[in-house]
Amino acid sequence: MDRRLLLLTAFTGGMTTLGIELAASRLLGNVFGTSNLVWANIIGLILVYLTAGYFLGGRWADRSPYPRTFYRLVVWAAFAAGMVPVIAQPVLRWAAGAVEQLNAAIMAGSFLAILLLFSVPVTLLGCISPFVIRLAITDPLRAGRISGQVYAISTLGSILGTFLPVLWLIPEVGTARTFLVLSSALMIVGWIGLLTVDRRQALLHLGLPVILAILSAWALQGPIKASVGQLYEGESAYNYIQVREINGVRYLMLNEGQAVHSVYDPAGQATYGTWDYFLAAPYFNAAPFAPERVERLGIVGLAAGTIAKQFTHVYGPIPIDGWDIDPQVMEVGRRFFDMTEPNLQAMAQDGRWGLEQSEQRYTVIGVDAYRPPYIPWQLTTRQFFEIVRHHLTPDGALAINVGRTPDDRRLIEALVGTIGAVFPSVHVVDVPGTFNTMVYATVLPTEAENLKRNLAALRDSGAAALLVDVVQRAAANLVPTPDSQIVFTDDRAPVETLINSILVRFVLGGQLETLSVE
């Protein structure tokens, strides 16, 4: 028995196990999103399956401590891992329609069914390490050393399995084929091991990769989703990206597709969504605030550039710095959303880090970095808003898009309290027809009534029609700023817990079908 081959199997098994866990999050995230609840279910159940595998693998190894048994187990574990996307794909396509229609029963059932698909392959993968240890130990006096060696090598494989799918496989070949690549690697190692101990069994198991190839070619053909008006779909290291065109208007959707991240209408600039309302930010300053005073814009959460396009239309070619963590989203913006403004500097960076490193000061900084249903927690803290204020001009303004439900405004209250700890004035505008609220803050002390005074001044000065329309809509939808003492910090920002609570309350209230977040 070749001990080096045993250790190689432990390494490949560790790589496949962690790779499958990462790929599972993307397989489900394409349809169900990437919320903490989805991640918790994936990690929790995979740990349950691994626990069962460790237990069963130890007993199995003691009852049949033979290399032939072990390598057959490895080959079948690899086959089962490769079958996950093959079996899941029809269910996912069915589930995608349920998510678009917000059919809670089908969503929950399909989510559970797909998670159950991982029970067999992950349990079998969990059997590998205890089996390797049992076969590798020939001298009881070296049991501890060998066990440590096997776990160390398996963990090294797990490290590779953590980075390989995210940084290379998923962006290059897609989620489903990532499963196939990982399972093929493990199957080759297992088959070589089987060939060294039982050639007849190795030849019999040659049919498994053929079956897997045929079924994969059948099940994985066609798009991941078949949405109406779909122009593009792709997977990056961060997102499943989809572009849809309906009645001549293009929409950027990420992951489960419940939120629209950018809009492009060649026939007009107004979207009547949250993007428009960033234009109103500087007009909480004392009237008259002339449009010429808007000199530079910073956007945290650029996406496909809707906000940048509107600011360029209204204010001309002012310098715009936009940050988005996903470079492929920005490439999609250039290709499908005409994000080609020469005054826009689009940077593939984390928004907070990029803003903090910037040497510029901005008249307006917009924060629109939703990863539904969450705002990244690091963009909700006092320290972040201190960075924002430091990069604003003396008459600068912040605008941030915040989600809510009709009867639960706790996230707005938390953000208002945190922003109010940094800025002297905070104002709130509900975006009609959505579950979104715009929160504005100004470096100078300001009044909400300034918005209406500036509206009159803009009309008199002949300002751009889109700007007048947006300021008018913002003024009409002003709501009282809540009195909040909540302050999120880098040390404690329970934004995910708060949003989870809001979602659970919302779903239990039977209002899921009304959900719409931009």
Overall average pLDDT: 89
Strand content is 5-15%
CATH architecture of the largest domain: 3-Layer(aba) Sandwich
Under CATH, the homologous superfamily of the largest domain reads: Vaccinia Virus protein VP39
List how many beta strands DSSP finds. 12
Q: How would you classify the helix and strand content by structural class?
A: alpha/beta
**Secondary structure: helix percent:** 55-70%
Count of separate structural domains:
2
> Biggest sheet, open or closed, and with what strands and sense?
8 strands, mixed
Low-confidence stretches: 512-517
CATH class of the largest domain: Alpha Beta
Q: Widest sheet: strand order?
A: 7-6-5-8-9-11-10-12
Notable features of this structure?
single chain, 518 residues, alpha/beta, Growth Hormone, Chain: A, Rossmann fold, eight-stranded mixed beta sheet, four-stranded antiparallel beta sheet, 19 helices, 14% strand, elongated
